[in-house]
Specification:
Strand content: 35-45%
Shape: globular
Largest sheet: 8 strands, mixed
Strand order of the largest sheet: 2-1-15-14-18-17-16-20
Length: 281
Amino acid sequence: MTVAGLNIHPLKSGRAIPVQAASVGLDGFVGDRRFMVTEPDGRFITQRELQALAQVEAHPMDGTVRLAMNGRELVPAFDAGRRLPVTVWDSAVDAALADEAANATLSDWLGREVRLVHMDGQASRHVGEKWAGNPVPVGFADGFPVLITTTGSLADLNRTLAEKGQEPVGMDRFRTNILVEHDGAWDEDLWEAVEIGGIVFDLVKPCARCIMTTQDQITGERIGGNPIQGLAEKRMSADRSVAGVLFGWNAVPRGEGELRLGDAVRVLGERTDRWPMKVRA
């Protein structure tokens, strides 16, 4: 098995950036989900409620980010002394707030009043003690530092969609960090940990999927094959601790280093049982 894809998402819910190599810290890929769009009161916003975020490209710069949308560009300014308390699910984060002009411009782009925040050196967030054993550092990702998926599982999902008369979907719908080239469908359910580039990643929790997987990751439109319907055939969780349809695994890096496309992926341990799934009548 090898690494077939590496992606960072500098802006939470913005477009992914495929990369040849990625630096990994204990809190995930360097540059991944370090910026976020929020409501004026600090509540996080994603493509779930604002589909136009899929059209926003974000490229990290020193201390800021370059945003682009429909031919327009914006480079906000962040001041460590200008802050906004924000929330990501149950997490509270003291984030750096972009300058007023940048927030006004981004609000105009997106057609509603928003704020742009940055998880800078003063900000911190720790999650996942129940699943990882100890709280782990993470950026603005929904739950864990890294998401791992496989080509074999996507191929199996697309076979199911074809049986339903639907179009295949790409891996970009699932916003993965590490895509593993592996023919076996859903084998990752058994992996306790993998080693890639000298870094151990513990696979701690399956990833429940939402309506974002139904959205084109260029336009934000809900078009094409519907992964939720496809996953419901075989991947509906029977364990209420992680409800819904599942695709991919949340992972925690236990070291730091660099990953490259083509790196070997080695399974370090396997579970005795797969995650329980509901059987459709």
